[in-house]
Amino acid sequence: MYMSEDYNSPQSPYWALKSFLALSLPPSHTFWTSREKSLPLPQESHAITPVHPPKHIICASPNHHYLLSTAQFCPWPLKATEAKYGKYAYSSHFGFSVPTGTLIQQIAPDSTLALSKDGSETWRVPWRVDGAGFGEARVLHHGKEVERISVLKSVWRPWGDAEVEVSTWLVAPSKRWPDWYLRVHRFRNTGVGDVKVQCVQGGFAIQGRGDAKGEVLPVLLNTSSLAPSDSGGHSFPEGTLQVPDGALICSNAGASGIRTLHATGIQRAEILKPDANTNLIWQRTLIPTLVSDLTCSNDSTMLACAVFALARTKNREEAYAKLDVGALWEDVPVLRDRGEGGAVEWCVTLD
Predict the structure, then answer these.
(1) Confidence tier at 259 by pLDDT (50, 70, 90)
(2) Distances (CA, A) of 33 to 24, 29, 338
(3) I need a surface site. Which of 72, 206, 297, 328 has the fewest CB within 10 A?
(4) Cα–Cα distance between 17 and 58 in angstroms, integer?
(5) CATH number of domain containing 214
(6) What is the pLDDT of residue 139?
(7) What confidence tier does 41 reach under pLDDT thresholds 50, 70, 90?
(8) Domain assignment of residue 37, yes or no
(9) Which residue has the higher pLDDT, 152 or 340?
């Protein structure tokens, strides 16, 4: 019943029976005689495709396939409508989570931003946004532009009784950092007085139990245990890692992490354990999060993070075993404002 919607009826299962129409086709029909082909893969190992009508950016690489999203919402009162339409990213491997209650563990804020202005008693996540559109960011190498990457931008007003405005930019992965996408939020209070806001930024939810016995994942102290094994076989790292600026989770599903790039106010990395059965794929998940305490005033307050993910799939177990997850995790994107000083070898600039 939880998966059904208000518009469903006892007749809805009949829609699934349409698949049996193929049985009426003769044996000579091309449906039966055509040779099965493999799934088409992008010609490039790193393919970013903006899709303008729905305001999506499809991100395809050997390590992960997902899309960035904004501007989507459903005006009907569907269950978990914010989770089904309003999240920043939807992955073909990690799926997404739906809420089971009002607590932050029940909301399961993967791939989204959750805000509270009453001490975490109630939370708001993006649903309907304004001003959605596309932009561009630039990748610079020693100050010279080497790549332009697509950006989705939008404006969200979380509350009707507080004039807080959140501008968001979703920056697609670059060839320099193909396993990361960036999220930048600018908070501004257009009303009178300051508003204290607690923010939770979530990465991709991931299988949160051990592969052998479904046990709790071990706590890792550093990235040395994430290096590829020399013993051969399809080995993979398992465990959780928390550092001052980020959180990483590794399991038999792959790796999911989030790191701070820029923040104003108090911020800490946490590994959130959501309610069971919030995710559409795994029964028990963990979500890497960044928790921030902000004071929104007439001056802009910025939050920026980088979201990291590697998918371990059955057809890529050997390739995944060769990845140095720790090295990829430590290779954090550098985000710079246009005209910001300080020499760096590589950086992403966003106007």
Answers:
(1) very high
(2) 14, 6, 57
(3) 297
(4) 31
(5) 2.70.98
(6) 96
(7) low
(8) no
(9) 152
